[in-house]
Amino acid sequence: MRCVTTYTLRKGSPAKTRTDVVVVGVVRTTKGDLEVATGGEDVAAAYGRRFKPLLSSMAFRGDPGEVLRVPTGDTLPSGQLLAVGLGAADGVTTETLRRAAGTVARSLGNAASVALALPLDEPLRVRAVVEGFVSGLYSFTSYKSGAEPTSVAEVTLLSPTARDADAVAAVEQAQVVAAAVARARDWTNTPPNDLYPEVFAEQVADLGRQQKGKGPKVAVEVLEPEQLRELSCGGILGVGQGSAREPRLVRLTWSPPGARGHLALVGKGITYDSGGLSIKSGSSMATMKFDMGGAAAVIAATFAIAELGLPVAVTTYAPMAENMPGGRAMRPGDVLTMHDGQTVEVTNTDAEGRLILADALAMAVEDGPDAIVDVATLTGGCVVALGEKVAGLMGDDPTTAALTEAAERSGELLWRLPIPEESRRAVVDTKVADVLQANWVRWGGTLYAAAFLERFVGDVPWAHLDIAGSAWNSGGAWGHVTPGATGYSVTTLVEYAAALAAGPTD
Ligand code: BES
Ligand code: MN
Ligand code: ZN
In the chain, which end has fewer C-beta atoms inside a 10 angstrom radius, N or C? Predict the structure, then answer.
């Protein structure tokens, strides 16, 4: 059983608090000196003139991500002191703290209780630290035999804001958002033999049934192949037909009373991408269970938005299919008719994401939302261009700008890419059908894919997030981002919805 962690916000001095580990931040001044960060002053005072020599004797530099854990002797009532580097004193941001908290969470040894004496002087920082701590502790152990790792049971956040209602609420909100990130990570990490469309959809329906409380709920509908045929969802059916596991389309509806605006979310839910008949090589198939990371993110975000009670209507579409080369598989050369009636000439069955998204986007448009955001592990080109930490963002100016602002608050990295006219022209350059699924030339594949999706959003304001790199961390943990599935975009989507709920600011 995983240990449940409780988070408590209170005023108080870290030099008078008795826990297993006391955590302070350390910053570097412009002169290059090390200094304790705000919140940790009493700890530094208790050490007096021994504080700086302690750090330098351990070659501590105060770099972001650096930690030092030492016994306190009788200097403090707590047994151990943990110093975490926060970098330059004038460069400490909310994001610095979120990442530091993630690193701290994994550096506590077998401590059961910890007090954080970090710069927690405003609710946003409280929220970032709790989010970072919870996400940094994440690990996926469902398939590991033997003992589960135990984690810290009690986290005390020492903060002058402890009596501020916003800060108290921030602790709760952070836990809701971090739980959503963990849920998206769990789904994405689950092996594809256990998580296929039917199971994924059923788990979402279960979540729908488990919602507690008296308020409005997220409604969950699962559309099966028969209904998808009635709706002429040729993309979802075409991609799904090569697999023994049938496709699904999950629709979530959150319509709270007094909603300010209506947001539509769409997420790519390929539970496994073998490439289909245009089969991938063995090595590029290896992590393709992650190809439903977009669906996992939009679903988890939708439940979080509801749990936070954000007054914005959300309709979420998660098309789910397994891309396999079975005897009934879609062929290069096939023509599919999508939900909105457009026909698509298939040229490469490995460009399956855009096909299932086309149906889902067309359905989202019919709800008449104010904006659509789709999230998809869509193109290898995006990973080449932006690496594993930065998502590609495409779409119209206002919607991409709003998403960029949301991502600045969530700390998730993204970068705008263009949709050039050249790609738009290439998408309709087919004699066979209305639209060409994949270009014959490889270059600019990320932009081409976006130009393809754009055909299905009509005039609705729209942004597209290509998370092919950022959905998966193939390296070691950094800050609050653990190895494997990252849950990328959950936090940004919740921030974006919160901004819509708050209404225009001017
Ligand atoms: N799921 C992949 C995208 C992907 C590739 C993510 C590599 C992470 C790493 C997607 O379905 C795909 O296969 N895209 C192809 C499209 C191409 C065949 C037009 C790609 O980008 O190579
Ligand atoms: Mn593919
Ligand atoms: Zn794919």
Answer: C
